[in-house]
User: Fold this.
Amino acid sequence: DDNPVEQVADRLRGRRVVVIGTGTSWHAAAQGAYFLRAAGLDAVAVESAEAAVDRPLPGPGEVMLALTHTGRKRFTAEAADKASRGGADVIQISGTAVVDADLRTVERERSSAFTVSHLAALLRIAQLARTLGAELGDLDAIPGAVENAFQEGWDEVPVPERLIEFVGGGINQWTAAEGALKIREAAYVASEGLSAEQFLHGPQVALRSHDRLVCLDGGGPVWPERIASIADAAESSGVPVSRIEHRELGELLSIFPLTVAVQRIALESAEALGTNPDSFGRDVPGREAWENVRL
Assistant:
């Protein structure tokens, strides 16, 4: 649905943009900033809490683009309110139930993992960037690529004894971070998601044969070779490796099928371990103590 996009895109055109979000929406904010920079905008991503508490906010003539599934996250709302009072134009991308959203995505889903909402928010920002002149690739091919990533046969990614590490390059460092968040949230598995370079400069030392490394290759001029080198070195050192490649849409749009891939790993891990991937841990004894911490 492109109809609402043009009007919102005009509010972004030629202006500095700060994209904010928390949790999964923080990953979407970081990737969304890539899309907007491809359209020639001065766009940066800032975690909502940092924007609300520590970071200089956008001012008059600038834009805050706030990503939120439900419109209820504490620091996203606080940062948006402060930016608005400071004269910035605040644009919100949210689910259909958020009546004051500027761009709506999908109905609120059953799962607290918000997998559909995440993909839809990313697509909204891609639509904005395309309207502003970014050459991202074929957005109309995304639904088919997402379906294929969900349905296609692939090698099983077993749950490791200790740690599963996700690694990606460039824009897919945030896909790696999302994979780690999702498998912790859905299957309660210890995980980490890092950029290729951050992984190489320290964390790779800790991997052992009872761990697993998931390497995400979305293409690009540098990252396939870099990711392959990481996977080869890990395998040679005795670490089990899963390689997941989706290059057909180009590097920027590869985040859509690769995100589905890591979401599916999280789901299948939950099924293997018998956890409820939709519950956000609310069915775990003692979890009620966390209800006192406002999200």
Summary: The chain has a mean pLDDT of 96. Residues 255-273 form the longest helix (19 residues).
